[in-house]
Amino acid sequence: MTHTTAHASALYDIPGPVTRRRHFTYGLISTAVILALFGWVLYLLFDTDQFTSAKWTPFTYQGIQELLLRGLGNTLKAFAYAAVLSLLLGAVLAVGRLSEHRPVRWVSTLLVEFFRAMPVLVMIFFIFVALKVQPLPALVAGLTLYNGSVLAEVFRTGIHSVERGQREAAYALGMRKTQVTTFVLAPQAVRAMLPTIISQLVVALKDTSLGYLITYEEFLHAGKLIASNLDYDLPFIPVVMVISPIYIGMCMLLSWFATWVARREQRNPKTEGTGVASAEPGTVLPGRGPR
User: Fold this and answer.
1) Which of helix, strand or coil describes residue 133?
2) CB of 116 within 8 A of CB of 93?
3) Low-confidence spans in the chain with pLDDT less than 70
4) What is the Cα gyration radius of the chain?
């Protein structure tokens, strides 16, 4: 047995022929079930005439296309605002939780725990109805408060994940706490935090769909208008089939980016060893001339 095989089998038992055949059978059965389910759904769509031209022709109208594009643009605008503000709020709350001043730490902890436990929809409705804020600011504020509180914990955990020796070495050099956090801990913690940060932004992107409940004209709201206000037979399923892949595609793109970042960071550590050329005859040493 080679060293590689021994190292791999130290963590788990290598499947034998019987186990591999059993796993292969499970894979075939699972694939068959998924294909059968997909075929059944497709049959129901055809059986209920969801692919008739009467239900799909309106998507070729310029007005419908402009409505969908405007809704998609509003969704991306709300997401951009919420993403930037959530990162800023998360950084501020994380700094507060890491503060040496007890009142600041207590207040920051209370805000993080409160907004993280509060449902996003409740916060959005409260800001929109009770505070009488316009739909876009209300949606952005609700998303910012929730995702910012979650990101604050991500930032704090990332800072604490850095080896203790890094912090102690920086203090030994005479650096203040702000300098240690800014120039030593934060750059190293970003490597561990970045995939989680992007994954949380995927949540913010999906939650922008809650804007339709407060009449914000985002992508889902545009689909609702198309499905409910046209004169022909209610095209609810075609609208879902148009909107859902776009939502899924945007979320998958962000998720793929998070995975790519994680793999890139694993392949490219922040500090890499520097190659040293081997000594050769006639090499000149520093401060010495050739013989």
Assistant:
1) coil
2) no
3) 1-13, 229-234, 262, 265-291
4) 28
Q: In the numeric block, which tokens belong to residue 41?
A: 């759904």
Cα 211 to Cα 59, 220, 224, 267: the distances in Å are 23, 8, 12, 39
| pTM, two decimal places | 0.74
Residue 137, judged by CB atoms within 10 A of its CB (0-12, 13-18, 19+), counts as middle
Among 161, 128, 160, CA closest to 142: 128
Residue 50 — φ and ψ, nearest 5°? -80, -10
- Residues 174/215, Cβ–Cβ less than 8 Å: no
pLDDT tens-digit map of 187-216:
777 777 888 888 899 899 999 999 988 989
Which residues have CB under 8 Å from 90's CB, separation 6+?
A: 147, 148, 149, 150, 151, 152, 154, 155
80: left (phi over 0), alpha (psi -120 to 50) or beta: alpha
Residue 185 one-letter amino acid: L
- What does the angle CA 56 – CA 61 – CA 62 come to, to the nearest 5 degrees? 145
* Three-state secondary structure readout of 12-69: CCCCCHHHHHHHHHHHHHHHHHHHHHHHHHHHHHHHCCCCCHHHHHHHHCHHHHHHHH
Residues in the chain, total? 291
Separation CA 38–CA 113 (nearest Å): 42
39-62 burial, b for 16+ CB within 10 Å, e for fewer? eeeeeeeeeeebeeeebeebeeee
The answer to whether residues 253 and 199 touch, using CB atoms and an 8 Å cutoff, is no
State phi, psi for 52 to the nearest 5 degrees. -70, 150
- Residue 27 burial (C-beta neighbours within 10 Å; 0-12, 13-18, 19+): exposed
